[in-house]
Amino acid sequence: MTDITVIGSNMFELTTYTDRMPVQGETIEAGEFEMGFGGKGANQAIAAARLGSAVNFITMVGDDEFGQQQIDNYEQNGISLKGVGTCHGSSGVAPIFVDPSSDNRILIIKGANEQLTPAVLDHQIELIKNSKLIVLQQEISLETNYHAIELGQKYQVPVLLNPAPANDHLNIDYVSKTTFFTPNETELATLTGMPTTTLDEIKAAAYSLVERGVQNLIITLGSKGALWVDHDHDEIIPGMKVKAVDTTGAGDSFIGSFAHYYTDGEAIGTALRHANQYAAMTVTKRGSQKSYPSKQELPALLAQYQLQKV
Ligand code: ATP
Ligand code: RIB
Description:
By secondary structure, the chain is of the alpha/beta class. The protein has helices at residues 40-50, 65-76, 118-122, 125-129, 142-154, 172-175, 185-192, 199-211, 250-263, 268-282, 298-304; strands at residues 2-7, 11-17, 32-38, 55-62, 84-87, 93-98, 104-106, 131-136, 159-161, 180-181, 216-220, 225-229, 234-238. 35% of the residues lie in helices and 22% in strands.
């Protein structure tokens, strides 16, 4: 049995590190440039695989120079290639701009990710139904995600939906069929139309979704950690104090590592604590996947930050 099937996007990242963003019509010189593998689906798949999960990744790459590099990257990280398809055209690409405060601005050009249709999933039923968890994000079409949720229900495989990037057309009826729903504060505001500036506002928005049938809401709060809300309780899982240099892909590392720890048998609260630790380590390094430690690398990194084992 596969531990986790991630259904989603991949992007080739073109990252510029700059002291400031140019204003309209202005040209300025930036400090550094790096390329790397990214995309929310791929990042989550890689995080889980580096921690030791058996991961299937259902995704589409283009037949351009980036597509084969993506496939090689999955293979090197031990991800099954059975769900990876190639189509004619360009792969997904993400120009990213990171400022000195570690914040980022990201553009995505979906390319081949547009070809990850519901019909593609129908060719991957065996992979999907033999998984412990299906993991979804929103860099592919909502229709494909809805179909994945239906397949999860049909084959009794729990589904985690990470609604990133935000899409205000997301149908909450489908969300209530998932086991885990993991927006950040901004995505929560988009979905509920409610303010999410203070913790009280975030809780009110979260409970409005629980009342509509959402089972486990996990709201990521950046350096503050995460809030877990279900029908019976709400609980803050505090973040770790680290020096952040680049938060790109932090949310994905949190989701991928949570998926790993949860399918490895941990209780939800414990898996969230471990995911907070894993994600905190990733913001101390540049890039998204480049910053994701393996199971073997993690203990030494945590020790550097003197984090307690939870
Ligand atoms: P992104 O879109 O940049 O991937 P996100 O908005 O989806 O991120 P965040 O809430 O910013 O997600 O971060 C996800 C998780 O990463 C947090 O819940 C926390 O565990 C960890 N994290 C993020 N930023 C920091 C930080 N500065 N220090 C420590 N941990 C962090
Ligand atoms: O969540 C971060 C990811 O969003 C980056 O890897 C970038 O490629 C975009 O897909």
